[in-house]
Amino acid sequence: MIRSMEQAMRVASRLEWGGVVINSSGNYRHLDQPFGGWKKSGIGREGVSVTLDEMTQAKFYILKNVLA
Predict the structure, then answer these.
(1) Distance in angstroms (rounded) separating the CA atoms of residues 65 and 38
(2) Is the pTM of the predicted complex or chain greater than 0.70?
(3) pLDDT (tens digit per residue) in 9-67
(4) Where do runs of H (alpha helix) occur along the chain?
(5) Neighbour-count burial for 34-45, b at 16+ CB within 10 Å, e otherwise
(6) Which residue of 19, 43, 63, 65 has the lowest C-beta tally within 10 Å?
């Protein structure tokens, strides 16, 4: 479990992934969260919020158990 929010955000911002889940598994997915990677990991993204914004580089940060 990452205990430093500053460290978690620094690492997450450098990852070239469509979504980052901090302190939990990747089983959580919100309806508006895009699914799909960057570069050669696929041919685009799926998800309600990215249908019209397919050419952007969206990233979500999911923070769980950080305000304890």
Answers:
(1) 28
(2) no
(3) 998 899 877 678 888 776 767 766 766 666 776 666 666 666 666 666 778 888 888 88
(4) 5-14
(5) bebeeeeeeeeb
(6) 43
